[in-house]
Amino acid sequence: MIQKWVKLSFIYLFFVGALGCLLRWVMFSPVEGINFRYFLHTHSHLAFLGWVFNALFAAMIFAYLPHKAKNYRLLFWLLQLAVLGMMFTFPWQGYAAASIAFSTAHIFLSYWFAGKFLFDTKSKKLSSSPLSLMFMRWALFFMVLSSIGPFALGAIMAKGLAGTDLYQLAIYFYLHFQYDGWFTFAVFGLFFWLLERHKVAFSIKSGHRFLWLMAIACLPAYTLSTLWTHPPVGIYAVGFVAVAMQIMAVAYLFHMIRNRKRQLKQILLPWTTRLLTFAVGAFLVKITLQTASAFPAIADLAYNIRNFTIGYLHIVFLGFISVFLIGWFHQTGLFIIHSKTMRSGIVLFLSGFVLSELYIFLQPLYFMVGFGLIPYSHQVLFAISLLMPAGIGMFLFRAVRITVSGTRRHSLKIVPSFQSHQKKTFEVEKSGSQQEA
Prior knowledge:
This protein is mostly helical.
């Protein structure tokens, strides 16, 4: 059952990529009947709620509550009704009665999920995953906190203030606590769950310091998204403190990873290692860009040049969150990269991401040095972007139902068979690498 949820999440990811390409096409060749803003809303809601939310939902149930998965089935499919409702209403009406109703329904269903998950994970049986669970609880807190943004938008629009600074600040509030809160903390929760599951002896003290520094920094880090309004000097100071805390947190994280590098190589599958390494690289770029945005000139530049904002959001969403989830699902056997076609699809997806990011950042830099617009820039970016849904389609098409050794089909006793799954997958990947060589 959980595998079906994961595969559905990947189907949403494919549509996210396809819609992204459509938006790139409309930039240089408008299509009658397609409202760019409406489809942009569809693209973003499907990315957040169709792909990442569902993927994290499945991963969290698999990791902590596999024996209670059936209790979450109704909630999962109600969430899908809300997602599909948004998928079919946003393209035709943008923010209007129907689409707002579906998005509001999803928010209240996410509250249900948060409350139910927190209640169900009070069990003493979960005491073996203390740090990872703390990350998950913070993730859910930030998810609920982020919902203030959409509710504030409704009130702001009702007062006729759409498009004002207040309107933009509400959007950035939602984005910040989704990206830097809910998504990031859930990803690190899943990472530490892997370490706990494999009994990797890392420094608990360093782990807690990493958690608390990240959690405390997340709240004031929202100020980094407000610097374009040129607030009082004190707000800039708060932003600098937040990035300083994040840098300290990253130092603790890398101290833990460096001391356990050999163990990680032993427990992680080859493709998991590659994907998680890529995700860590994207996370470092994210922290670097956030640190740079604490400086007023950079903050103004990021706000005024849309490409920089889009590039940053894609680095976090695709390079960090999405790549990590693909690697995690492969490691746990929920979505195994088991064939040459799937491996080629992953490479295609990553290539499309890297090339598009380079091009997104290159265009404004090219313009700033006085060379003007790159000829056929929109067309080139569209062609590059096609690589991502093509890659997703390749490994999604080749995906097959996975039955982990030692469990019956769709049994949720899959975690105790981790070692069996990994041993077999190590052999498959090694054999595949030899054949490709």
